[in-house]
From TrEMBL:
Chain residues forming the annotated DNA-binding region: 109-207
Keywords assigned by UniProt, alphabetized: DNA-binding, Phosphoprotein, Transcription, Transcription regulation, Two-component regulatory system
GO terms classed as biological process: regulation of DNA-templated transcription
Matching PANTHER family: DNA-BINDING DUAL TRANSCRIPTIONAL REGULATOR OMPR, REGULATOR OF RPOS
Biological classification of the source: Bacteria, Bacillati, Actinomycetota, Actinomycetes, Streptosporangiales
Domain OmpR/PhoB-type: 109-207
Source organism of the structure: Herbidospora solisilvae
Protein name as annotated: DNA-binding response regulator
GO CC, alphabetical: cytosol; protein-DNA complex
Modified residues (4-aspartylphosphate): D42
Single GO MF descriptor: transcription cis-regulatory region binding
Pfam families: Trans_reg_C (PF00486)
Length: 209
């Protein structure tokens, strides 16, 4: 995997910790001889991610300040806010790799429908009207979970547990994924009609049909 951070000391600490878990880690894109299993990028180094993902479909974890990640307009499989513990990052890495390798998927198959939104769970395919919707693995799992549990309010902690499979973690990653999901399936993401904010609680899915 590749770790790129503006602070070389941070990249080195992360690399050493992940190497202890048995991963082969590089901190310089020039050292790559093929597609890495995973990119871990500081949000200020997005150009590296864009260049590599143009060549290979590589999962990405972004690192940054919480407020920067919430405002960030970039696809990623996960987001980790600074400062973070190396152990927490290692757990996120393991989860993203399992998902990328297909061992974490929404249970069951079938097709979920809500008006013009159609989700084929088995094929991991989403359409909105006549348009195909491209989602990251985590966005897809979040959408499936909400569609299967309409009109129920879930806290960010609930969603971290039930979609991410984490007993603990930074709930801002849920906020980021909800925002990005709204941008892809809502007619007006600033006034969402499907993924509703329940103030003081979290979110619920409100069917259109």
């Amino acid at each position: 995997m590749l770790v790129v951070d503006d602070d070389p000391a941070v990249a080195e600490v992360v690399a050493r910790y992940l190497e202890r878990d048995g991963h082969e880690v590089r901190c310089d894109p020039a050292d790559l001889t093929g597609p890495p299993d995973l990119l871990i990028l500081d949000m200020n180094r997005l150009a590296v991610g864009h260049e590599l993902r143009a060549r290979w479909p590589v999962p990405v974890i972004l690192l940054g300040e919480a407020i920067d990640l919430v405002d960030l307009d970039a696809d990623a499989d996960d987001y980790v806010t600074k400062p973070f513990s190396p152990r927490e990052l290692a757990l996120r890495v393991a989860a993203v790799l399992r998902r990328a390798r297909g061992s974490i998927v929404p249970a069951g198959t079938g097709v979920l429908r809500d008006a013009d939104l159609v989700v084929d769970v088995g094929a991991r395919h989403v359409r909105l009207g006549d348009a195909e919707v491209t989602l990251t693995a985590r966005e897809f799992d979040l959408l499936v979970y909400l569609l299967r549990n309409p009109r129920q309010a879930f806290s960010r902690t609930d969603l971290l547990d039930r979609v991410w499979g984490w007993a603990f973690g930074d709930s801002s990653t849920v906020t980021v994924h909800v925002r990005r999901l709204r941008e892809k399936i809502e007619r007006d993401p600033t006034d969402p009609g499907r993924i509703i904010t329940v103030w003081g609680v979290g979110y619920r899915y409100e069917p259109v049909s």
